[in-house]
Design brief:
Elements lengths: L2 E12 L4 H8 L9 E7 L2 E7 L7 H9 L2 E9 L15 E5 L2 E8 L23 H16 L8 H16 L5 E5 L4 E5 L2 E2 L6 E2 L4 E7 L6 E2 L4 E2 L5 E7 L9 E2 L4 E6 L2 E7 L2
Helix pairs in contact: 3-4
Length: 271
C-alpha cells in the first residue's frame, strides 16, 4: 500500500521529512520499498526529490531529514508498485506546469480501466511513465486547463467543484485517495484504503491533524517525521495513517478538503 503525507504551514519553515517513519507506520514491513518522493513548494515553484528505491536505504532521504529546504507546503509519497516498473518515471509525486505554476499530484489506490475511461481522458497531456496515478494527474490537468487560462488565480470554489467531480470519477474505478497542490492551496481527497485489521479496502483513506503553535513553543513533531523550527504559526498535517498520539481526525469517505497557510479553508463531502 502506498503512503501519502502532506503539510501546510502559515509561515515558511524548515521541515524535515522522515519517510522511513511513514513507511513503518503505514504498511506491512517490506511493502513500501519501490520508491519515494517529496515536493517542497517555494511560492509558485517547487523542488522535487524522487528515487525508485526504498526510503530506508536512501542517503538522499537522510540528507533531507537534516537539511530539507524551507517551505510552507509539501507533498510526499512512498510507493508500493502495483502497475508499472520500479523506475524513476513511475515514482510519485508527479509535477507539471500549468498557468505559470507548478502543480503536484500524488495518489494512493488502483484505478483499473482508467485508460478506457472517456471522462478521464488525458487531453493534450501525456504520461512519462506507466502508472494509473500519472494518467489520473494528466486527466486532472486536462480539466484544469480551462480554469487556468485566465490571468488571475481561479477561485477556490471553482477549483473545489472541479476536483469534487474529478474525485467522483476516480471513485467509480477504485480507491481514490490523492493529494494535489497548485502553489496556492493543498487539496486532499479521502476514499478507501486497505486496512490492516480487516484486510479490506475501507475508509478512512486519509487523516488530518491541525496544530497551532504559540510564539514561545518549539513544538517539534518528530514522531510524524516533521520538525517545525519556526513557531507562532498554524500547521496542518494530512497522512495515510496517524503519525503521532495526538487527536488526528479521519476524513470521511469521499471527503475533499482545501488547506492553505496551515488552516482548513473548505470541505466538500459527496452525498
Amino acid at each position: 500500500m502506498c503512503e501519502l503525507l502532506a503539510l501546510s504551514t502559515s509561515q515558511p519553515s524548515r521541515l524535515t521529512f522522515s519517510l522511513r517513519t511513514l513507511a513503518s507506520r503505514g504498511a506491512e514491513a517490506g511493502t513500501t520499498h519501490d520508491g519515494w518522493g517529496v515536493a517542497f513548494y517555494q511560492g509558485h515553484d517547487a523542488a522535487l526529490f524522487r528515487e525508485p528505491r526504498a526510503a530506508a536505504d536512501s542517503v538522499l532521504v537522510r540528507y533531507l531529514e537534516d537539511h530539507g529546504p524551507s517551505t510552507n507546503l509539501a507533498i510526499s509519497h512512498i510507493r508500493h508498485a502495483t502497475r508499472g516498473a520500479v523506475s524513476f518515471s513511475n515514482t510519485q509525486p508527479f509535477m507539471r506546469e500549468l498557468g505559470g505554476r507548478l502543480h503536484v499530484f500524488a495518489h494512493n489506490g488502483d484505478l483499473p480501466g482508467i485508460e478506457e475511461s472517456a471522462v478521464l481522458a488525458m487531453g493534450p497531456y501525456r504520461q512519462v511513465g506507466q502508472t494509473d496515478s500519472e494518467h489520473a494527474f494528466c486527466a486532472l490537468l486536462a480539466r484544469m486547463r480551462t480554469l487556468w487560462q485566465g490571468a488571475g488565480l481561479p477561485s477556490l470554489q471553482s477549483r473545489m467543484s472541479l476536483l469534487a467531480a474529478f474525485a467522483a470519477d476516480l471513485r467509480a474505478l477504485g480507491p481514490a485517495n490523492f493529494l494535489y497542490a497548485d502553489g496556492d492551496a493543498l487539496f486532499a481527497h479521502s476514499h478507501r484504503r486497505l486496512q490492516p485489521a480487516s484486510g479490506r479496502a475501507e475508509p478512512p483513506g486519509l487523516w488530518v491533524l491541525q496544530r497551532h503553535c504559540a510564539p514561545d513553543d518549539s513544538v517539534p513533531v518528530r514522531d510524524a517525521g516533521v520538525s517545525i523550527v519556526r513557531a507562532d504559526q498554524a500547521a496542518c498535517f494530512i497522512a495515510s495513517v496517524p503519525l503521532t498520539d495526538e487527536p488526528w481526525k479521519p476524513l470521511a469517505e469521499g471527503e475533499l478538503v482545501a488547506v492553505g497557510c496551515g488552516e482548513v479553508l473548505a470541505t466538500l463531502c459527496h452525498g
